[in-house]
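Re-run with default settings, no changes from the original entry. Doing this only to confirm the output is reproducible before filing.
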Amino acid sequence: MDRGERRILLVSSTGGVLLDLLALRPWWSRHDVSWVAVPGSDTREVLAGERVTWAEELTPRQPFAVARAVVAARRHLRRDRIDLVVSAGTGVAVPYFLAARSAGVPAWWVETLNVLAGAGIAARVCARAGDLVLVQHSAMLADHPRALFVGELY
């Protein structure tokens, strides 16, 4: 690994979350990247050939599943010596942000482009657990007071 290269874990569900992370490709392509993704037709197609750990989507109504996923995420971060976790969303990201926080691994939350009217539960948890929050709509600064407004990624 080069001096400036980091081991980055991108955590994605399907749809717009995947598009937000793909829009960051000019940045993350310079690093050693692996993925955690929710299986779907778009993620399977777009991430073909990438290093992917497939994970099921989680909801707040599954507290035991979330707790088990945090333990597994912490093992994953340690095993792969991840330097940074980046995600734009949904329940699959929550255990990785909680694990990153407890392991001292930085985590960046990207508020997805399609969120205009208030952050969801996963966004609120990940934004609080994360070290950096990026928003694409200035209106979302009210939901994430310490966020940076970056504008639309795509």
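The domain at 7-149 is CATH 3.40.50.2000 (Rossmann fold). The chain is about 35% helix and 20% strand.
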